[in-house]
Amino acid sequence: MMLTDNEIRDALKAGGLGITPFEERCLQSASYDFRVGDQAFLSGTDSIIEVANKGLVIIEPGEFAVLATRETVKCSAQYAAQIGLDSKYARQGLVLLSGPQIDPGFTGVLVVRVTNLAPRRITLMYEAPFLTVQFFRLTHAVAKPYSGSRQGQTGLGPADVEELTHPDSPTLGGMVKSLSALATDVSDLKTAVKWMAWAVPVIVAIGMAVVGLVVGLK
Q1: 91-146 pLDDT, tens per residue?
Q2: CB of 102 within 8 A of CB of 110?
Q3: For 140, what's the count of Cα atoms within 13 Å in the CB-facing half-sphere?
Q4: Distance CA 95, CA 115 (A)
Q5: How far apart are alpha carbons 89 and 78 in whole angstroms?
Q6: Contact, 36 vs 67, CB < 8 A?
Q7: Which of 102, 106, 87 is closest to 136 using CA atoms?
Q8: If we measure between CA atoms, which residue out of 73, 61, 62, 66 comes closest to residue 51?
């Protein structure tokens, strides 16, 4: 059963759910908006960005980003949640690549991966709502609550950035830039061909005229 705003409040009070820090303005009619947190990592870089200090994250076209949420979430064994990207950023061309579910028993910040498929950069401000989370109360508590490697995570870890920093792995951003450069080269080549198509007949005509003149003088 998906929870409404009042049911989310009740679950928070009862301890079945936890959202820290909780902001009333982020509570929607049947979901909660999670915000851009303290850390991020961008493909093509070599260090984690301290978003809280910088104030924003800029994702270039074709670039991947790993983002941590401002909030820590807790789901008891009888609650689960689904994650979706805020429609504001989805309309701009941002795509969520992470798994869609928060498992029963999970506690920690959310770490998600996104990519920018738009032809222009997308800016995420610190503490801007960017994820929509819907909570569900299960009929019965699960027998095996989540206990994986993500349990209790407080931010980005080595595993979150390893794939984006692998030297042999081309990034989408790099491929987009390469294709852009190739398109420019093709455009320049087309311009050169057009110029030659006009210039060659003129040069041939001038050559024939010179030959005719030389023959006439003889």
Answers
A1: 999 999 988 999 999 999 999 999 999 999 999 999 999 999 999 999 999 999 99
A2: yes
A3: 3
A4: 5
A5: 31
A6: yes
A7: 102
A8: 66
In this structure, which amino acid lies at residue 158?
Answer: P
Length of the chain measured in residues: 218
Terminus-to-terminus CA distance in the chain, angstroms? 102
Q: Which of 8, 38, 2 is nearest to 23 (CA)?
A: 8
Q: Is the peptide bond before 21 cis (omega within 30 degrees of 0)?
A: yes
User: Contact, 101 vs 146, CB < 8 A?
Assistant: no
Place of tokens 């699960």: 142
If you average pLDDT over residues 162-180, what whole number do you get?
56
**DSSP characters for the chain?**
-B--HHHHHHHHHHTSEEEES--GGGB-SS-EEEEEEEEEEETT-SS-EEHHHH-EEEE-TT-EEEEEEEEEEEE-TTEEEEEEE-HHHHHHTEEE-S-SEEPTT-EEEEEEEEEE-SSS-EEEETT-EEEEEEEEE-SS--SS---STTTT--S--HHHHHGGG-TTS--HHHHHHHHHHHHHHHHHHHHHHHHHHHHHHHHHHHHHHHHHHHHHH-
Distance CA 58, CA 15 (A): 36
Superfamily of domain 5-165: Deoxyuridine triphosphatase (dUTPase) (2.70.40.10)
